[in-house]
Fold this sequence. Notes:
Elements: H1 2-12, H2 17-22, H3 24-29, H4 36-49, H5 55-68, H6 72-89, H7 93-107
Helix pairs in contact: 1-4, 5-6, 5-7, 6-7
Amino acid sequence: MKYLGIQALGMLLKTSPKLLERHQLIIVDSLESKDETLKKETLDLLFKMTNQDNIEIIVSKMLNTLHASTDDHFRNTLVLKITELAERYCTTHEWYISTMQILFELGSEYLS
């Protein structure tokens, strides 16, 4: 059921992005699902809906998920998406450096 909800929200992203903002915390919590397909869909949706206003919350949750995940492919995808989002929506130099430091600690093996 959550999978269908995430997919439906993904379809609404282009037409009603404000609607997704209201459900942001529920979407972020879906990263903790045991269902790998749901986690992948959630990560893709979060990546698409991230902006200057929610970058810190979403990247923080992604870093927590990276820390808890044991799936190498998913961890690699997380590292790539976190890196791209941090570069694209950097709020301050301090935040960027702190985020990259945590990323190096948790996923340096996935950085090239």
